[in-house]
């Protein structure tokens, strides 16, 4: 076991090869890895959630074109405490508790200028090859992408801002508003945050599908009005069940699985003139009833991560408009990270949280 002063990290070397190893404690600079004018801070990490992408890099060594070629620290759903600030940092100081936005632009390109910095092709992103993540004891990050947490927001809530941001961005792109009828496909962590955000944004009714009865029960707990446990139904049959429960076809479908049959069901289910948002990522090529969507003017929109969501999420958590605490079902100390990853791989619970500060395992 590493001493508290050492920088224990969870590192993937190649497909199937996940290790706990010590790395040097980084030094924050006045001008860092990112924009020349973005000074850095050093954080003592507290809570880091395990994402499906972390497990995928461990199991397969790649996601699409992002390939693990060199050892990479995993983790991007994170919060911690500032222990040292670079000389150019004015808005944060040692002792501040912060949530970390993992994507930081490296240049002021057209996407940054238009406010859609998540689309910048050169963006730094934690735990996306070749960029290291923050599943470790100590980590340095751009100070401008660290957001101070109010006293009534816990570290774990701070870490959950990352998946919550996916829901905020997806529901904004979908146009969820007062009275919307929404179909969420997939009741994993991302499906659940979309339920939370859709209800908060005024959705009148939300129906959610999944294979797992336990995950659908969790969806009911966080606000889903109706659930459908999918078994052997065709996409058209799933769409029919959605319409039957809602009493109409949904205005909006948020597809969170990336599975071909689920995307098909999403198109069939969405009312004419409605919107389907693709959140889940599956195979590069899928077969979908595109003519059905076209002739009914179903808009199909993609999302890539998120942008400009951390301040919104913090305000929602601080005001108690959204409760993400039920999403955390398992906690492990950093030293037991390999066990935590196995738990996530087996699909147990919802969100597995790793506690990186050996002196504080509180939420």
The fraction of residues assigned to DSSP E strands is 25-35%
Number of strands: 20
Which structural class fits the helix and strand makeup? Answer: alpha/beta
The low-pLDDT segments are: none
GO molecular function, one term: L-iditol 2-dehydrogenase (NAD+) activity
GO biological process, one term: sorbitol catabolic process
Cofactor: Zn(2+)
InterPro entries: ADH-like_C (IPR013149), ADH-like_N (IPR013154), ADH_Zn_CS (IPR002328), ER (IPR020843), GroES-like_sf (IPR011032), NAD(P)-bd_dom_sf (IPR036291), SDH-like (IPR045306)
Short description:
The chain has 363 residues and is of the alpha/beta class. It has helices at 52-60, 110-113, 155-159, 161-174, 189-200, 213-221, 235-246, 260-269, 290-295, 310-318, 337-345, and strands at 7-14, 17-23, 40-49, 62-63, 66-67, 72-73, 77-85, 97-100, 103-104, 124-125, 138-142, 146-148, 181-185, 205-210, 226-229, 252-255, 275-278, 299-302, 328-333, 351-355.
Topology, please?
Elements: E1 7-14, E2 17-23, E3 40-49, H1 52-60, E4 62-63, E5 66-67, E6 72-73, E7 77-85, E8 97-100, E9 103-104, H2 110-113, E10 124-125, E11 138-142, E12 146-148, H3 155-159, H4 161-174, E13 181-185, H5 189-200, E14 205-210, H6 213-221, E15 226-229, H7 235-246, E16 252-255, H8 260-269, E17 275-278, H9 290-295, E18 299-302, H10 310-318, E19 328-333, H11 337-345, E20 351-355
Parallel strand pairs: 13-14, 13-16, 14-15, 16-17, 17-18, 19-20
Antiparallel strand pairs: 1-2, 1-6, 3-7, 3-11, 3-20, 4-5, 7-8, 8-12, 9-10
